[in-house]
Amino acid sequence: MIIGIGVDIVQNSRIKELINKYGDRFLEKIYTAKEIEYCQSKNSFVASFAARFAAKEAVLKALGTGMRNNNWHEIEILNNELGKPEVLLNNKTARRAKKIKVNSIFISISHEKEYSIAQIIMEGEN
Question: What are the C-alpha distances in Å from 55 to residues 28, 84, 86?
């Protein structure tokens, strides 16, 4: 059964402006060290950061909480050995997912020159 869905779209230039203005301070506030390492290894690193930002926002929407009682680092978007993105939840965010009985999280992210988008579907028990 679907427990929650979330979608978010981000203008890549918005993330680029934040990176240019705040640098590592912005990156370290929003992304984990593994996410930063992955995104910085890409030629289109801004779009990779934007897609992960959209994914984190989509997770919060699917959980139905927004940023209340959550932390950006508690949502981690990493790629498996085949390159497929996966969602890892930690601490309060993981406890929220457990409370609403989420047992699977599906993610799709995409980016192009101007925009990045992410969709989350959470499945679980009713």
Answer: 17, 13, 10
What pTM did the predictor assign? 0.94
Residues whose CB is less than 8 angstroms from the CB of residue 38 and which lie 6 or more positions away in sequence, other chains included: 48, 78, 79
Res. 126: pLDDT tops 80: no
pLDDT of residue 59: 97
Residue 57 annotated as part of some ligand binding site? yes
- The stretches of 8-105 forming alpha helices (DSSP H) are 12-22, 24-30, 33-40, 45-63, 91-99
CATH 3.40.50.720 for domain 1-122: no
Domain limits, the chain:
1-122
Q: Which residues are annotated as catalytic? A: 61, 111
pLDDT at 68 over 90: no
> 81 a known binding residue?
no
Query: What pLDDT does 70 receive?
Result: 80
